[in-house]
Specification:
The protein is α/β, with parallel strands linked by helices. The chain is 42% helix and 19% strand. The protein folds into three domains: 2-276, Aldolase class I (TIM Barrel), CATH 3.20.20.70; 321-381; 391-517, Alpha-isopropylmalate synthase LeuA, regulatory domain (Double Stranded RNA Binding Domain), CATH 3.30.160.
């Protein structure tokens, strides 16, 4: 069977999902698990879009050694310089260069002609090949392009040195038969297509991203660009877990396979859901909590006797661990560490100590703890990945039918001292948040407050997700921008979980404000890295380094 390459777009394409907010350490945590899973390519980000994105790609390039790290750039020398500077520590670097191929893109956005756009793309590929051997060409808006022109562009960029050509349906418009015909047409009408890998990038606006990806693979594509949990802008990208497990279950029929360790799919799904704060739909295929639940008596009877032909995927194949046992403390610290690894979490000593101590506290309230409880504890106690300016010391609330909701909160501040505040509100959560605000004093707007029971029963552990919007300095003459920050917390007491989540989001906003003030220093580091690459490889263009304020106004489509 032929092997399909899996290009993971969780960190870049997924980061464009509304409300998604991943910092560098969180991206690294996901990337480490993707590397263990065996993905072929990690789409790390667009370095020229901001100093923060540059640092994220640079960090991934310096740590990930077993798979290709791909950085995105527009078809211009300045972007390519910055992307290569970010990738200089990568073991297997790849540049993805993007340029539109539809008339609406060429005329409407680029304000140029087909021939000029084709030459622009060819020159960008040639320039990129001076730096790296692995260049992926992104034919933006291919789904609306004139097919004959698309064939010409692909032939030209492959001749210029592109090793992969990425064909996107970024508007999620095509149905499988149309998409398969387009890929088949590329294979039949681009003379040198055998010198490059065809990659596909499908969006899920009509719920067809997985079907379109599989149809493209059946018609000759050999790289699938997808994301964990289908994370991405609008309705998201093709789901990695669905594409991979479809090939796993029906590989013989398709004659295709992947190099993915499928037993890490469920842990990866849980980790991404945890870090982004996006709940996983219970009946979501492959990774949903009810994906392997049966109500039909016939199926239940078969499952009780053992796996049946009706169960096309063994839950163990994607890394789902049995959850119907308690008393994890009986296995000791190492047993809990093994359980955490099974859930996809690799904790340092400090994080593990926090989880273990929280576990000991919780078992006094709920003696029959299981893996889902452990997962809930991790959600509230770890993966902060930043310096916490304020820590929750204590919260007390009083409320009732005739009593005004009142909350008293104690926070340990940056000086190590505990500061107390008492406030009233419309409810106990509102009162607690106002008490926190009176201490922290960081203006923000609450956008989302959601509560989810992570375990069953009246003593369930509740998980709270909070999103706030606040101002962050850009480092350009006192200018600021508004950004969204995610907070999460878990506890059997939902008020405590709420305050933890809100404080988490506030700490992220404070960390971003501190980073924003360091923006000029980051700009200088980027400038030095670019100059180092130019000194090493030379430069074919003349011009000053493009300022971040200019670059950030444009996005790769």
């Amino acid at each position: 069977m032929e092997q399909v390459k899996i290009c993971d777009a969780t960190l870049y394409g997924g980061g464009q999902a509304p409300g998604a907010s991943l910092n560098i350490e969180e991206k690294l945590e996901i990337a480490r698990l993707l590397e263990q899973m065996g993905v072929d390519v990690i789409q790390a980000g667009f370095p020229a879009s901001s100093p923060g994105e540059f640092k994220a790609v640079q960090s991934l390039a310096g740590e990930i050694r077993e798979c290709v790290v791909c950085a995105l750039a527009r078809a211009r020398a300045g972007d390519i310089d910055v992307a290569v500077a970010a990738l200089k520590g990568a073991a297997w670097p790849r540049l993805q260069i993007g340029l539109g191929v539809s008339d609406s893109y060429i005329v409407g956005k680029l304000k140029t002609t087909r021939e000029a756009a084709l030459e622009m793309g060819v020159e960008a590929v040639r320039y990129a090949r001076r730096y790296v051997n692995d260049v992926q060409y992104y034919a933006a808006d291919a789904c609306r392009a004139d097919e004959e022109y698309l064939y010409r562009v692909l032939e030209a960029v492959i001749a210029a040195g592109a090793t992969t050509v990425n064909i996107p349906d970024a508007i999620g418009f095509f149905v499988p038969s149309e998409w398969g015909a387009l890929i088949r047409g590329i294979r039949e009408n681009v003379p040198n297509i055998d010198q490059a890998v065809i990659s596909v990038h499908c969006h899920n606006d009509l719920g067809l991203a997985t079907a379109n990806t599989l149809e493209a693979l059946a018609n000759g594509a050999r790289q699938a660009e997808c994301a964990i949990n289908g994370l991405g802008e609008r309705s998201g990208n093709a789901c990695l877990e669905e594409v991979v497990m479809a090939l796993h279950a029906r590989g013989q029929a398709l004659g295709l396979t992947t190099g993915i360790n499928t037993r890490l799919i469920y842990p990866a799904s849980q980790l991404v859901g945890h870090l982004t704060g996006f709940s996983i739909q219970p009946n979501k295929p492959i990774v949903g909590a009810r994906a392997f639940a049966y109500t039909s008596g016939m199926y239940q009877n078969g499952v009780l006797r053992g796996r049946t032909e009706a169960e096309i995927i063994d839950p163990a194949d994607i890394g789902i661990v049995e959850t119907d046992y308690g008393g994890l403390l009986l296995t000791g610290r190492e047993g809990i560490r093994r359980s955490l690894r099974a859930l996809g979490f690799t904790l340092n000593d400090d994080e593990f100590a926090r989880v273990y101590n929280r576990f000991r506290d919780l078992v006094k309230k709920k003696p029959d703890l299981g893996l889902r409880d452990l997962e809930a504890i991790v959600s509230g106690e770890t993966a902060v990945f930043m310096e916490e300016t304020y820590e929750l010391e204590e919260v007390q609330v009083s409320c009732g039918t005739h009593a005004p909701p009142t909350a008293t909160v104690g926070l340990r501040g940056p000086d190590g001292e505990v500061v107390w505040a008492t406030s009233q509100g419309n409810g106990p959560v509102d009162a607690a948040f106002k008490a926190v605000d009176s201490i922290v004093n960081v203006p923000n707007e609450l956008l989302e407050f959601s509560v989810q029971a992570m375990t069953e029963g009246v003593d369930a552990v509740g998980k709270v997700t909070v999103r706030i919007r606040g101002e962050v300095p850009t480092g350009n003459g006192g200018q600021v921008e508004k950004r969204v920050f995610l907070g999460r917390g878990a506890d059997t007491d939902i008020i405590v979980a709420s305050v933890k989540a809100y404080l988490f989001a506030l700490n992220r906003q404070i960390a971003a404000q501190q980073a924003g003030r360091q923006r000029q220093a980051i700009n200088e580091e980027v400038r030095r890295a670019v100059e180092e690459m130019r000194a090493r490889y030379g430069t074919a263009h003349i011009g000053d380094f493009m300022g971040w304020s200019v670059l950030r106004e444009e996005k790769l489509v």
